[in-house]
Amino acid sequence: MFHLFMSVLLQKVRSVYNSEQGRFKMNARATSNRMTTWCLPVLLSLLATVLIDYHDGMCAEWKVVTKRYEPSEVLYAIRNEALKKHAGFYFPEYRMDDKALYSGYRPIEPVEDVEKHSEAADFRHVWKTRFSKPIVPGETVFFYSRIYVENVDRYSISLHLSKSDVWIEKMVTIPFTGYQLPLNSPLSSWRGKIDNVETSGNTREADTVDKMLVKIYPKGDQYDFVIGELKIYKAEWVSKNYTHPLFRPILKGYIDDALDFEYTPPGVPLVSSSIMWRSLVGHNGDPYYIEPVASSTETSYSPVDLRELKTTMFRQFIDKYPFYKERGLEKADLLGRFNGFATVPISHREAFNDSLIALVSAYNDPHFKAWRIADRRSPGRRSTPPVVFYDILGVVRVGAVFATELMDEVKPGMRLVSVQDQPIEDVISKLSEQFLGSAYSRRQKAISSIPRYMPDSAEIVIGLMSKDENGKTVEVRLDTGGEYRIPPGFVPRHGEFRILDGDIAYFRISRWRLDVWTRFVKHMSDIKKANGLIIDLRSNPGGEAASIIRVISAFIDEPTLYSREYSPAVDRVEDLIIRPNEQYRIDLPVAILGNGLTTCASEVFIDTMQYAKKAVFVANHKTAGSVSGVIRVVFPDGLVVGVNSWSNRLSPTGKSIEGRGIVPDVRVDINTVDDLAHRKDKMLNVAMNLLKQKRQVVNR
């Protein structure tokens, strides 16, 4: 605090000095008494001003909160209906607070008379119910369901507005057979209009929903439609205080309540949890907002308050950052650079933010970065590029061509030598600067971004050398704004799931979203019939830890150590232990595919499966080595920091993967474009041969 006080004082003195310097020069013959007479009152005035400003700045108290919609009242639930339950089901967990459901309802019945409001004539299967109490729809009223289907094309939910006597409808297309992903839909988005309805004169009343109709559209006479959960609930915007030890320096009267209670999310099969998991109660995935405690319509903090807040928290981030050794960084150097920011005037808030963003970038850690909310544009739909390039043994080559007009001229295997008349390695070096991580991962990401090298230009010119590299170079113009379609089955050609070579199950996970477990369960019966399983995590950037833990739980038959979580803020290590899944058990030889862009949660999955001796890791390169958990901290002025100083995930063996990655058990070199996944897929073939060899050993 004294450091900040002196900074403010020096800034004011410097400002006055600069403005008065010219006057001093004009009066060079002024006596020293006159100087003293002027200086003393000015300095005393400055000191008083700074003390007042600094005192005002110290008045703010801070809190850390998360904000989200949370269910506040269940308005209708099918489980309160007098319907027959059918056992033998397993509706998978989705959110962290979900519980698996082992029973469901089959209320759908064939009927001859179709409701007059229906626009469709191809259904004769409905279920209708009248609510015991009318429901008032609104922006914060949601419909939620979990269902199981077989041989059904689509279904719809219709709600009747009693006063206006109209129906609103939600049509849902069935993407696959089996357990569906949960439907969580605000009624305000349904077809039809939910609004106040004019009743008489100048009086307006809210309309109400009094009954519901579920219609299904089977593909044939034999079908199944089971409702595990169906409810309508009201949600409210909830702000919850957050008390992780990382924020201790700014929270008045802080209590380490996250250290003392036990909590394991009901939807995640954990025997024990760490501080990180216990502090996630009700907060998972949400930003953490730092706000003033005082509730006022006016700004309840001063510029000095804001500077002190950022100084305190960034000093905490720097001090507790756990990967200096792994990242080859000198903590003292970065702390010294940070201390130099004190010379930035308090009034120059954006310049100070620029300095902080630049400092965080110097860590070169994909899980530690800073930005402004206003600068982070929401990404548009990713378009398929006209040409895809790959790094083959240090040489950039064409791996695929999607633009039909280029297919006669551009062939897979051709070498990329220039972009916009610049040597390709110079272009890669420039593009790499916008990415974080290891030199290898930055290079691969840069190569992938080449077709979008100049996003503001309609086209770029690339120089290509023929596959036989006879010295001749051709120039090709790429339309960067065009829309191209990936041919069916291109990457990966194997799809999400298939049976290879008759008895090897293949499951592709492009990212660990919450839907992974549901999709895995969908294929469970086929997986259990196979003689081996390949899980493809190539270029998987990570995702939800809950999904990883759920999948791992299907492979273990006893509680298994998942990780040792080190919390730098309290210098404490705790174990996360996974319990076996109660419904499914997979006992097959497993091979996991990966590469240098296999990152974060995928690395944790590989590490745990290796530790449990449940899988062999096959890759052409070690993994990215970036596994730490991240939280987003939002400061009052819109500065955001994605910070990993709160937790360091150690391997079950006690070692850190951060900055090191996981070396493959079996390394597969990619020597030509024909070895790539969408062609002959050399890595997949190696994995299949390994599993066949293991099967032969088991059968002996």
Write the layout of secondary structure elements.
Layout: H1 2-26, H2 32-57, E1 62-77, E2 85-91, E3 101-105, E4 109-110, E5 125-135, E6 141-150, E7 152-161, E8 166-173, E9 178-179, E10 183-186, E11 196-200, E12 203-206, E13 209-218, E14 224-241, E15 270-272, H3 275-278, E16 288-292, H4 303-320, H5 324-327, H6 331-339, H7 349-361, E17 369-372, E18 387-392, E19 395-401, E20 415-419, E21 422-423, H8 424-432, H9 439-448, E22 459-465, E23 473-479, E24 497-500, E25 504-508, H10 516-522, H11 524-529, E26 532-536, H12 545-553, E27 560-567, E28 572-578, E29 590-594, H13 601-611, E30 616-619, E31 631-634, E32 639-643, E33 648-650, E34 666-667, H14 682-699
Parallel strand pairs: 16-31, 25-26, 26-29, 29-30, 30-34
Antiparallel strand pairs: 1-14, 1-16, 2-3, 4-5, 5-13, 6-9, 6-10, 6-14, 7-8, 7-13, 11-12, 15-28, 17-32, 18-19, 20-21, 20-22, 22-23, 24-25, 27-28, 27-33, 31-32
In short:
With 700 residues, the protein is of the alpha+beta class. The protein has 14 helices and 34 strands.
Structure notes:
With 700 residues, this protein is an alpha+beta fold. The chain has five domains: 2-58; 69-238, Sandwich (Jelly Rolls); 240-367, no CATH class; 387-479, Pdz3 Domain (Roll); 497-699, 2-enoyl-CoA Hydratase, Chain A, domain 1. It has 14 helices and 34 strands. The strands form eight sheets. Strands 1, 6, 9, 10, 14, 16, 17, 31 and 32 form a nine-stranded mixed β-sheet that branches. A six-stranded mixed β-sheet has the order 24-25-26-29-30-34, sandwiched between helices. Helix 12 (545-553) packs parallel to helix 13 (601-611). The longest helix has 26 residues, at 32-57. It is globular, with a radius of gyration of 31 Å.
